[in-house]
């Protein structure tokens, strides 16, 4: 019998999680929760659960169904209340990004998980994509020497309609968390300070600032430059962004979701105005499920291993707070026009 799961939040992403839980032989879906009773009832029916498995309150669902874990797939503003409620009842959690809608809420969630001593993870699903693991492994192998510089470009003209069109910082708040978390994943470095300029380009169909240029100072002198826009027509990048990672001995590129490509100084090669370079072969790694299937597997590995677990799963709340801090520091910097520390 697999681990018993409740999914909280029956919107688009909640339904993707219900499918993931049901597709994974290591767990089973035993209940669903949504503040909208009709959404919970419909999700239960659509996933083959009895009407008694649909709830409007997470604590009541936990007491009735005694799950092994809770998936918090609510809106960001509800993440804190949902995840804290589960930890008060000593139930492990895995939740969607962003950790929370504010640093204060994120800190409260970290404290609740610390107190319950139960596993608490955020699913940063892009960490599990094969190309991303390949780039991370190549950097860690030292094949380009020590990393000095990372650039990410993200340019997509996205006509969502709805709440994003009205938000203050749609790109940074709703999207850039993926890229800010990825730079920490790729390099293993955390951000120390940022200067960010948000703006709303001429012709924008958004109310808030939907474009940005940000310079992050990371640990060990690494500089990360992020340029992005959600109202750039033509020449779209990948949703994962296009990346350039420069090291002391070479460069790695990750563009348009193709496998990473790199060049480095050829050992013993010709010198001169340009050094002689050679291509870097980058292995395609095996991953245990990509996207949210990958994060669910990592969570289940840790849950099954329990106290015997030697490895620490990625994106536990206290660690993920460091990615969230990049988001809020960037917004603070843009508002003040100053370089600001990335503080927890
Ligand atoms: N990883 C990704 O690529 C990705 C993509 C889309 C969304 N997301 C994230 O997934 C989460 C959910 O997004 P979505 O697109 O499904 O949103 P959504 O608005 O479609 O659904 C959210 C659901 O949560 C419910 N809800 C709100 N407050 C609640 C509460 N207190 N208790 C229980 N249910 C509550 C709402 O009624 C709604 O049904 C967000 O954090 C979002 O950022 C991640």
Tell me what the structure shows.
By secondary structure, the chain is α/β, with parallel strands linked by helices. The chain has two domains: 116 residues, NAD(P)-binding Rossmann-like Domain (Rossmann fold); 174 residues, Dihydrodipicolinate Reductase, domain 2. 35% of the residues lie in helices and 24% in strands. The strands form two sheets. It has a nine-stranded mixed beta sheet with strand order 14-13-12-11-7-10-9-8-15, with helices on one face. Strands 3-2-1-4-5-6 form a six-stranded parallel beta sheet, with helices on both faces. Helix 4 runs parallel beside helix 5, helix 5 packs antiparallel against helix 10 and helix 6 runs parallel beside helix 8. The model has no long low-confidence stretch (mean pLDDT 96). Nicotinamide-adenine-dinucleotide binds next to helix 1 and helix 4. The site of nicotinamide-adenine-dinucleotide (NAD) has 22 residues, from helix 1 and helix 4.
How many strands, what sense, and barrel or not for the largest sheet?
9 strands, mixed
The CATH topology of the largest domain turns out to be: Dihydrodipicolinate Reductase, domain 2
* Sequence of strands across the biggest β-sheet: 14-13-12-11-7-10-9-8-15
The CATH class assignment of the largest domain is: Alpha Beta
Short description:
The chain has 344 residues and is an alpha/beta fold.
Using brief descriptors, characterize the structure shown.
single chain, 344 residues, alpha/beta, Rossmann fold, Dihydrodipicolinate Reductase, domain 2, 2 domains, 9-stranded mixed sheet, 6-stranded parallel sheet, 10 helices, 35% helix, globular, binds nicotinamide-adenine-dinucleotide
């Amino acid at each position: 019998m697999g681990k018993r799961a409740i999914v909280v939040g029956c919107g688009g992403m909640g339904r993707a999680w219900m499918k993931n839980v049901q597709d994974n032989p290591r767990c089973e879906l035993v209940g669903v929760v949504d503040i909208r009773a009709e959404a919970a009832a419909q999700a239960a029916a659509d996933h083959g659960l009895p009407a008694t498995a649909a709830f409007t309150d997470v604590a009541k669902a936990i007491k009735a169904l005694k799950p092994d874990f809770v998936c918090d797939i609510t809106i960001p503003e509800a993440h804190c209340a949902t995840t804290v409620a589960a930890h008060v009842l000593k139930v492990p959690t895995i939740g969607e990004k962003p950790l929370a809608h504010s640093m204060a809420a994120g800190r409260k969630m970290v404290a609740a998980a610390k107190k319950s001593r139960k596993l608490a993870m955020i699913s940063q699903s892009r960490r599990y994509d094969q190309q991303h693991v390949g780039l991370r492994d190549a950097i860690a192998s030292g094949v380009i020497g020590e990393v000095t510089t990372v650039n990410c470009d993200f340019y997509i003209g996205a006509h969502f309609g709805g709440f994003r069109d009205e938000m203050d910082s749609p790109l940074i708040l709703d999207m850039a968390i993926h890229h800010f978390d990825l730079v920490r994943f790729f390099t293993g470095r955390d951000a120390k300070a940022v200067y960010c300029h948000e703006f709303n380009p001429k012709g924008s169909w958004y109310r808030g600032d939907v474009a940005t240029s940000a310079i992050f100072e990371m640990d060990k002198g690494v500089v990360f430059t992020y340029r992005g826009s959600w109202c750039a027509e033509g020449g779209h990048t990948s949703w994962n962004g296009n990346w350039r990672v420069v090291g002391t001995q070479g460069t790695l590129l990750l563009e348009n979701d193709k496998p990473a490509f790199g060049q480095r100084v050829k050992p013993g090669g010709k010198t001169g105005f340009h050094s002689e370079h050679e291509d870097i072969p980058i292995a395609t790694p095996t991953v245990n499920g990509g996207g949210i299937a990958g994060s669910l597997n990592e969570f289940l590995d840790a849950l099954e291993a329990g106290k015997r677990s030697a490895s620490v799963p990625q994106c536990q709340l206290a660690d993920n707070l460091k990615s969230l801090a990049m988001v809020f520091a960037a917004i603070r910097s843009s508002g003040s026009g100053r370089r600001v520390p990335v503080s927890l």
